[in-house]
UniProtKB/TrEMBL annotation:
GO cellular component annotations of the record: extrinsic component of membrane; photosystem II oxygen evolving complex
InterPro entries: Mog1/PsbP_a/b/a-sand (IPR016123), PsbP_C (IPR002683)
One Pfam family linked to the record: PsbP
GO molecular-function terms, A-Z: calcium ion binding
Sequence ranges assigned to domain PsbP C-terminal in this UniProt record: 46-173
PANTHER family in alphabetical order: PSBP DOMAIN-CONTAINING PROTEIN 2, CHLOROPLASTIC (PTHR31407:SF3), PTHR31407
Protein name: PsbP domain-containing protein, chloroplastic-like
Highest taxon, organism lineage: Eukaryota
BP GO annotations: photosynthesis
Amino acid sequence: MHSGDAGGGDAHAQWRRAAAAAACGTLAAAAVALLGRPGAVAAEALVPYVNAAQHYSLAVPEGWERKGKAGADVLFEDPEKRSTSVGVTVSPVRVESIEQFGSLEAVGQRLLDTEAKKESTLDVRLVSESSRRGANGALLYDYEYELSSTRGRKRIVNTVSITGSKLYILNGQFKCAKEACEAGSSGGEDGGAADASSADAGGGEATAAALAALRGVAASFDAGVAAQ
């Protein structure tokens, strides 16, 4: 098990700063499909990480390396593809819960707006959004979106929660190869066929596996975790 090291202002301003840092790579790393979804990483492949001082936990694929990164509380990278990473930021805020900050849709729109305002952004598209409760009752918002920029295309997973007057943002990213991102789309009734078709193209299966790994990590994230 990895273990964490011991250790406001306006909530909206704090959100903008933290979200911008996470999305542009200060965290370089945040969330959506639950482990029960098709294609998610098996629970046995994930190694628990708990930061008791900051009261959060997650699980990362075995073999991923922990790195230091300015602005990130913790950052993990896939050693086989450094552009695939996941990290967490923790920031003090004045509100007590994510419900007080905004709805699932409202917070998701702020996230997309933050991305869209960057000069390098060409397009940003929401893939999915959902909410869930953590083990100790904290509400978590999960998002997945695709970002096209002058630097290329990425699929990003992002989980946001506020509990105990702390803003938690988990941000994970995967750099797509050409059109390969579509192999990992959540999809609807027609999505399975589209994904299968994309997976048959070169690199599709690897893309799907990488995105499943990020989704598995995001699904494991929890905030407001009691100290052990």
